[in-house]
């Protein structure tokens, strides 16, 4: 195995990234400049940090396999029929995505806008008189959980269980993670069995009826998509909303401009995705011996493309450390690239846009409470804060 010459310095690099998870960006820059292809003994993985290399890895499923990256885990017990869409390679990935797209359509997402608006207003109504709120717990967390639960046809009394499962699955707690997956699978299997007997106007019923040339999704494939939608949809939207408000607080001039020109919000959201990418790191495995940069990577080894590092690559973005809501073009890869482009990205964008539009229209002088320390979400993949208390004034 060919390792970087400065491999002995790994503890300083890895430790700084892990010990300062809310500001890994200076270390990403060091890695791009000095160790763009870098083996981490702690993660048993090659860290890939330059935009061109990251894009290559996530765009070539034949050479960098999602499926084999799961098989490579020594404790993995996932059977081939239960692999989620995220960890499936072509040709089955293409079939699965086509079937899921029949139920999870752009129209389905667009039709959620009135309900999303209603949920946001309801949650802001609860805090308006107080003059302060925790953006995460009062809005960014409950919003996507409610939307996804209703989309799947899950009753309101079970929604907190969903949040609990989602938080555990993205955490490093392996034993609890296995138990959460089991509990979630049992729950979704119960719902699938009910919908098979009595179809309703929800996504699970639509997934059961989706087919191509007589091929239907198996129960295991439906369960895995429900898990993926719950976890990825919740974590992406929650952290995108939180990251946006945190970044706007750090750049009040941008926030003021958005209040006067809300039509700039879509571009501002894309810049938040680039600047504070909600999902920082992915996982792939090489299918054959390959060369990345100056390093030879053997077949079967794990590579970790770091989206958060690629999105600040100086060769791709002008002044990448500057938050610029007018950035154009903005070819970030915060939602991935190629066949695994995030299937829930349109939902995350819609929820974030509506949430921010309403916040901008209802409140002014949104400011983070400075003496409350920020705590990073407990995950080596997800970027966000656990809590974001802010004060505000309600518009008259």
TrEMBL record:
CDD domains assigned: P450_EryK-like
Domain of life the protein comes from: Bacteria
Keywords: Heme, Iron, Metal-binding, Monooxygenase, Oxidoreductase
Family annotation (InterPro entries): Cyt_P450, Cyt_P450_B, Cyt_P450_CS, Cyt_P450_sf
SUPFAM superfamilies per the UniProt record, alphabetical: Cytochrome P450
A Pfam family hit: p450
GO terms assigned for molecular function: heme binding; iron ion binding; monooxygenase activity; oxidoreductase activity, acting on paired donors, with incorporation or reduction of molecular oxygen
Signal peptide: none
Recorded family membership: Belongs to the cytochrome P450 family.
Protein name: Putative cytochrome P450 YjiB
């Amino acid at each position: 195995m060919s390792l970087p010459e400065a491999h002995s310095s790994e503890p300083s690099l890895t430790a700084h990234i892990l010990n300062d998870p809310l500001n890994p960006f200076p270390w990403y820059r060091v890695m791009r400049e000095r160790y763009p292809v870098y083996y981490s003994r702690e993660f048993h993985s090659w860290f890939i940090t330059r935009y061109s290399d990251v894009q290559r890895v996530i765009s070539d499923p034949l050479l960098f396999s999602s499926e084999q990256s799961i098989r490579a885990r020594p404790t993995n017990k996932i059977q081939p029929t239960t692999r989620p869409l995220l960890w499936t390679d072509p040709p089955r990935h293409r079939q699965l995505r086509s079937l899921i797209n029949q139920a999870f359509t752009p129209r389905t997402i667009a039709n959620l806008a009135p309900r999303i608006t209603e949920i946001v207003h309801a949650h802001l109504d609860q805090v308006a008189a107080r003059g302060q709120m925790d953006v995460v717990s009062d809005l960014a967390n409950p919003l996507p959980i409610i939307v996804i639960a209703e989309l799947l046809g899950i009753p309101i009394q079970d929604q907190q269980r969903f949040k609990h499962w989602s938080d555990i699955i993205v955490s490093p707690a392996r034993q609890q993670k296995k138990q959460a997956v089991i509990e979630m699978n049992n729950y979704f299997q119960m719902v699938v069995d009910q919908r098979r007997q009595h179809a309703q106007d929800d996504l699970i019923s639509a997934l059961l009826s989706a087919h191509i040339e007589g091929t239907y999704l198996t129960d295991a494939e439906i369960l895995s998509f429900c898990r993926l939608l719950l976890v990825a949809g919740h974590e992406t939207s929650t952290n995108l909303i939180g990251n946006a408000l945190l970044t706007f607080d750090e750049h009040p001039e941008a926030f003021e401009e958005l209040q006067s020109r809300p039509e700039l919000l879509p571009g501002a959201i894309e810049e938040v995705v680039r600047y504070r990418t909600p999902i920082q790191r992915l996982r792939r495995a090489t299918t054959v011996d390959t060369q990345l940069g100056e390093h030879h990577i053997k077949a079967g080894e794990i590579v970790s493309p770091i989206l958060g590092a690629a999105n600040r690559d100086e060769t791709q973005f002008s002044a990448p450390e500057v938050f610029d809501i007018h950035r154009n073009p903005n070819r970030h890869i915060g939602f991935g690239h190629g066949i695994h482009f995030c299937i829930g990205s349109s939902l995350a964008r819609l929820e974030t846009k509506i949430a921010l539009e309403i916040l901008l229209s209802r409140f002014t002088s949104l400011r983070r409470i400075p003496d409350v320390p920020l705590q990073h979400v407990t995950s080596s993949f997800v970027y966000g804060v656990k809590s974001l208390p802010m004060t505000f004034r309600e518009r008259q």
